[in-house]
Amino acid sequence: MLGKLFKYDMAALTRVLAPLHLAALGVALLAAVCGLAGNGLGQAAHQASGSAGKLFGMFAGFAFMAFGVCLFLLLVLTLATFFVAVHRFYANLFTDEGYLTLTLPVTAHQIVISKVLAAALWLLVDFLVVGACVAMVLFAMDVFSEILSRSDQVGLPSLPTPSEWLSFAHSFLQIIAWLIAAYAALAAGSAAARHKVAASIGAFLLIAVAVGVVTALLNVFAFSALSALAPAYPIGSLDPYGPASNMIGNVVMVALAACSYVACVVRLKRHVNLA
Q: Which candidate, 221, 211, 219, 222, places its Cα nearest to that of 253?
């Protein structure tokens, strides 16, 4: 039954998110055009003089402004994917549509796992699409700049380094943890007699404050412990606090995801008599 739930959740998200990501490709193309136009007009502005140079410079500024807006829209797409997944969770469980979902022969664990997996897969697609679009746009601009400067040193884009892959994994863990936390906040807010959405937002803010306080306290403790051990590290060695802080962040995110998952399951079991 989990497989059927997953297919249903994926289909529901795909109906909304697939057109958005297709539009993202169009935005990336527009960003490339604006960036290339800005580079070309900028070069023309440097070579021209008088009013013509000022005119080229003005148009180059407009082109770069449009380029920045396009890049901003690409980055906003990740937030749009996040909010679509959260809205889908709420609509499918805590509105009239939830009557059918909560009476299916499934467990609370299967419902939550299905929605987390579907949202996580789409967020992964979103990360890859947005990252690829931004990388291709910036690479196209670099190539065009080299062509304008008549340079023969145009190379292929480099693959991500191990540290960049680790940063990607850390960011993905964070967004998944906060996604499940948003699910838990919606589940808690649905228990309110009135203003369920406002109660959900309040619950999410409380979760965010609690996570921030716990993370800060753990970092202070780690900093104090590492400061006491500082003489053991030779001069010029790598700062041990950075990796420790990253580890604390990852542990907190895993704990947040686990606690939020349990809260979702408990709330669903109380909402309807699910096994």
A: 211
